[in-house]
Amino acid sequence: MKEGLVIKSTGSWYTVKTNDGEVHNCRIKGRFRMEGIRTTNPISVGDIVEFNQEKDANVIVKINDRKNYIIRKSTNLSKSSQIIAANIDHAFLIVTVNYPLTTSTFIDRFLAAAEAYGIPVNLVFNKIDRYKNGDLTQLNELKDIYQSIGYKCFEVSARTGLNIDLLKDEMKNKINLLSGHSGVGKSTLINLIQPGLELKTGEISESHASGKHTTTFSEMFELDFGGYIIDTPGIRGFGTYDMKKEEMFHFFPEIFKISEKCQFHNCTHMHEPKCAVKRAVETGEIAESRYDSYWGMMSEDEELKYR
């Protein structure tokens, strides 16, 4: 029996790296597909697994307990989910206010999912070398909102290399996840952070102002300066998965903090009188965009929440 870290997942085969540096291609037993979370990928990049040599293939026989994972609704199976990565030390959400647009709704859904599973997140605003006056205004508004909550924000340019060293310092000796829409520059950033990988990069579709998928599966790369970086397929929409509505406000730190002042201990912060959260939105203490995201996640139907 050998133990190793899953560094690549293609859906049917998994690349596993053992502590001694050996790399093995492995498959899984079918029964894993029926255990635990209802998911399209029972094993993900970042998992620690145990495997045996069976006949002509290495077979994964055990998945060790995860300290966390980040999960989203599967795009093609309505009642299934997809685990993006597991055992993450730090997540970096790559955001662009243009080329293509990343909406605050998408940002807030990602942040809520990360909060739910105890994953620290930094926001990385990429392509700032292309921003015009209106873009810079929007950038500063978003930074003000998220920094006031406690999320660290970086302004970077994959084209010029601006502030890439700051990202490296933040990633050192950690397992780091990079996520975001297609076209925001994840692969280009990774190529700068770890030279020599030569990941394929794509251009923005001019007709749809959105990115073209260049990464089709998750893969983990070792960093020369210590740690790992996980590249993930671009996400068009990010739906929260398996979050109880009565706990939703826990995943919005500023709402959770203010909620202690509400009149009712079971306040939903939507319809109740003398709600401290609603009052904080009115006074500007809580950003209206954040409250709108919370309201949307609380009020949407199950079938709509992933669109």
UniProtKB/TrEMBL annotation:
An annotated GO BP: ribosomal small subunit biogenesis
Positions with a binding annotation for Zn(2+): C262, C267, H269, C275
Classification via SUPFAM superfamilies: Nucleic acid-binding proteins (SSF50249), P-loop containing nucleoside triphosphate hydrolases (SSF52540)
Record-listed GTP binding positions: N126, K127, I128, D129, G180, H181, S182, G183, V184, G185, K186, S187, T188
Cofactor requirements of the protein: Zn(2+)
Annotated CP-type G domain residues: 67-238
Keywords recorded for this protein, A-Z: Cytoplasm, GTP-binding, Hydrolase, Metal-binding, Nucleotide-binding, Ribosome biogenesis, RNA-binding, rRNA-binding, Zinc
Record carries keyword Ligase: no
Cell compartment(s), UniProt: Cytoplasm
GO molecular function: GTP binding; GTPase activity; metal ion binding; rRNA binding
EC numbers on record: 3.6.1.-
CDD domains per record: S1_YloQ_GTPase, YjeQ_EngC
Xref: InterPro entries: G_CP_dom (IPR030378), NA-bd_OB-fold (IPR012340), P-loop_NTPase (IPR027417), Ribosome_biogen_GTPase_RsgA (IPR004881), RsgA_GTPase_dom (IPR010914), RsgA_N (IPR031944)
Residue spans crossing the bilayer: none
Record domain EngC GTPase: where: 86-236
Entry GO CC: cytoplasm
Cofactor binding annotation: Binds 1 zinc ion per subunit.
Function recorded in the entry: One of several proteins that assist in the late maturation steps of the functional core of the 30S ribosomal subunit. Helps release RbfA from mature subunits. May play a role in the assembly of ribosomal proteins into the subunit. Circularly permuted GTPase that catalyzes slow GTP hydrolysis, GTPase activity is stimulated by the 30S ribosomal subunit.
Subunit: Monomer. Associates with 30S ribosomal subunit, binds 16S rRNA.
Family listed: Belongs to the TRAFAC class YlqF/YawG GTPase family. RsgA subfamily.
Protein name: Small ribosomal subunit biogenesis GTPase RsgA
Primary gene name: rsgA
